[in-house]
Amino acid sequence: MSGTKKIFIVTGEHSGDFHASFIVKELRKINPDIRIEAIGGENLKNEGIKLFCDHSKMAVVGLDALKSLFSHIKLGKNLVNYLKNEYKPDIVLLIDYGGFNLRIAKELKKRGIEVFYYISPQVWATRKGRINIIKKYISKIMLILPFEEGIYKEKGVNAQYVGHPLISQLPARFEREEFIKKNNLDPHKKIVGIFPGSRKMEINYLLPIFLEAAHKINSHSRKVQFCIAQAPNLQDKVLEKHIKDFVIMNDLEIKILKNQNHGLLANSDAAIAASGTITLEAALYNTPIVISYKGPYIAYLVYLLIRYIRFAALPNIIAGKEVVKEFIQHRAKPGLIANEILALLHNEGKRNEMIREMGKIREKLGDKIASKEVAQIINRHLSEKCTEAALS
Known about the structure:
The chain is α/β, with parallel strands linked by helices. The chain has two domains: 6-163 and 368-391, 3-Layer(aba) Sandwich (Rossmann fold); 176-365, 3-Layer(aba) Sandwich (Rossmann fold), CATH 3.40.50. The protein has helices spanning 14-30, 42-46, 65-87, 98-110, 130-137, 148-154, 165-169, 176-182, 200-220, 236-249, 261-267, 278-285, 297-306, 314-319, 334-346, 348-365, 370-391; strands at residues 6-10, 35-40, 50-54, 91-95, 115-118, 140-143, 159-161, 190-195, 224-230, 254-258, 270-274, 289-293, 325-328. Strands 3-2-1-4-5-6-7 form a seven-stranded parallel β-sheet, sandwiched between helices. Strands 10-9-8-11-12-13 form a six-stranded parallel β-sheet, with helices on both faces. Helix 1 (14-30) packs across helix 17 (370-391) and helix 3 (65-87) runs parallel beside helix 4.
């Protein structure tokens, strides 16, 4: 490939920055001379990438939504000017973060800058109109869920399934004995992992329900122990305000495990979780799980109006049927959750059926290493551009 090629990556939050760092590693293996800059965070910084700005600027914590919007607009303008007039990349790679990234794609396209996209906005869940925006402004979209490819191709979008990043990035199974010893757990009791989410609103709505469910499980079976996963961004007090009095009043022992989400998920005999990527992680670890979600009723009504699919949990969406029980909004009741967990712990047939279905989901995802696929697609495209330029 003649001449140094330049790529700019835009991420909006920690997960995008994490996925981007794997792509950077793969790109450098293929083309060590490639030049990369980004909006990112610690993971890209650790790869030695020059950051236009840290993506913490993408969300202005503590300020109102209007100020946050103005901050986005200002950042967007500065970024577009920098890319057009100074950096002049061969490709801009947008990762996830649809609200900001799709607006940026439009401005870049106007200025003749080619845009690729990795990790599609979930148009199949709510805003299908975004497919037309993607078709208009994105040269290629690289997808992480197998069923997405058909949705995009049907609309004439240049789309390709590249595998799910969890296939290669999810930490390997954790040694159970070591995990139990490290966290001073009882080796003779079953572990129920509780994953109430990473946002304050999720915690406030869901944790009281999950704690009550744990109390109900405990009253039926004393051979169960409970661990709550504390997300890295959550302050202790956010969880403690719900847990401290509850455990004393109900004679319930619950351990809080910090920064051990994957270890806890892999070693749980069953898990209760807020809806999110964790449901797919559970499927890949073969951990039986129940998902729940609750929020303000107005937000739920809006969701009902704009959704296109029946399910909330990724394993169910991929399977096209209910593999994992979903207790959403008015069904987010401690009794329902407790009964399902007890069945998954003690009903061997039910438990094995869920694990069997989880295995099928893993098969559907395939064995592609997403970061490698993305790097190869980008490098191939840059090579073709080079060839075209040489011939013209």
